[in-house]
Amino acid sequence: MTVKLYSQTLLPTRYGQFNVYVFRDEQQVEHLAIIKGQIGTGEDLLVRVHSECLTSEVLGSLKCDCKEQLEYALQAIEKAGRGLVVYLRQEGRGIGLGNKIKAYQLQEQGLDTLDANLQLGFGADLRVYNHAIEIMQYFGVQSLRLLTNNPQKFEQLESHFKVLSREPIVVATNAYSQSYLETKRDRMGHLIQSIPIDKRT
After folding, report:
1. Residue 63 near residue 92, CB atoms below 8 Å
2. Strand, coil or helix: what is 50?
3. 118 is in which domain, residue-wise?
4. Does residue 197 form part of some domain?
């Protein structure tokens, strides 16, 4: 394994009480496993593999739906009584925070989220899920219901686990993030069936 367990604790949150585990990878980057309940044999587990988005999750950016997806997953797992969120530190679809901000600047000039990344010389999505797979294997995950709209993520995990179903994440968008979600749906193949509008923003 390229990730090693470093620390763990019980963490009460506004969504419920979870056990949080910190894993360090070969580059000493820290990833999280956020667990609710008893995983047991690792069968039929509700799982979300989530990539870091500092701008939305910390600063409250309205340009994407990452924070809302994370909150949706935690709430769904709390309701189910057991489940796992693997939180990966791969900002900006794997291009890093600084380049993500550069991509935001290009979006202000009229490029969409995909073309902005391409303009910077990156692929559409550089994220990988090997660390998530290792963390899930560490906890003995066997079969799961995957909370995602991303078929690429589904395919990568399906080659290592029995994925029983894909559970869609439907969250409201706003005037700033609507085109972002439309690009993910129309150009990147994300399985977003509807994009409800949050009129409060």
Report:
1. no
2. strand
3. 91-126
4. no
Is this model's pTM higher than 0.70 or not?
yes
Tens-place pLDDT, residues 90-125: 998 888 999 999 988 898 888 887 888 888 888 877
46: helix, strand or coil:
strand
Candidate list 115, 125, 185, 198, residue with the active-site label: 125
CA atoms within 13 A on the CB side of 33: 27
Burial of residue 65 (number of CB atoms within 10 Å: 0-12, 13-18, 19+)? buried
Residue 127 catalytic? yes
What's the pLDDT tens digit per position in 133-185? Answer: 999 999 999 999 999 988 888 888 988 999 999 888 888 787 777 777 777 77
Catalytic residue, from 25, 48, 65, 127: name it. 127
Which of 126, 150, 177 is the last residue before a domain boundary? 126
